[in-house]
Design brief:
Order of helices and strands: HEEHEEH
Number of helices: 3
Helix content: 40-55%
Shape: globular
Strand content: 15-25%
Length: 100
C-alpha cells in the first residue's frame, strides 16, 4: 500500500527538490522545465515517459513549444507520496542530462 507523506516527511524531503514546488490543491509537486526548442522538450518528455512507465508512476503534464509543465501526485495515496519524490529526482536527472 502506498501512503501519503506526513508533515515531518514533507519537511525533511521537499527542501532537497530545488525547482519543485508543493501544489496544495492537488497535494502534489509541480515544476516547469524550459528547453531550447520543441524537439528538446519532446525528447525530454520521451525519456521521462520511459522511466515513468518502468516505475509504473505517471506524471500529469503538458507541453507547449519549449515548455513542459509537470505535476506529480499519487492518486492511490490521495496526495504526495514517496513515489512522487523519487520520480521528481529521476526527472531532475533527465533534465540535467538534456542540458549537457
Amino acid at each position: 500500500m502506498i501512503t501519503k507523506l506526513d508533515e515531518a516527511q514533507r519537511a525533511a524531503l521537499l527542501p532537497a527538490l530545488g525547482g519543485w514546488t508543493h501544489e496544495p490543491v492537488r497535494d502534489g509537486l509541480a515544476r516547469r522545465f524550459v528547453f531550447a526548442d520543441f524537439v528538446a522538450a519532446f525528447g525530454f518528455m520521451t525519456r521521462v515517459a520511459l522511466l515513468a512507465e518502468k516505475a509504473d508512476h505517471h506524471p500529469e503534464w503538458s507541453n507547449v513549444y519549449n515548455r513542459v509543465e509537470i505535476l506529480l501526485t499519487t492518486h492511490d495515496a490521495g496526495g504526495l507520496s514517496l513515489r512522487d519524490i523519487e520520480l521528481a529526482r529521476a526527472i531532475d536527472a533527465v533534465a540535467e542530462g538534456a542540458k549537457g
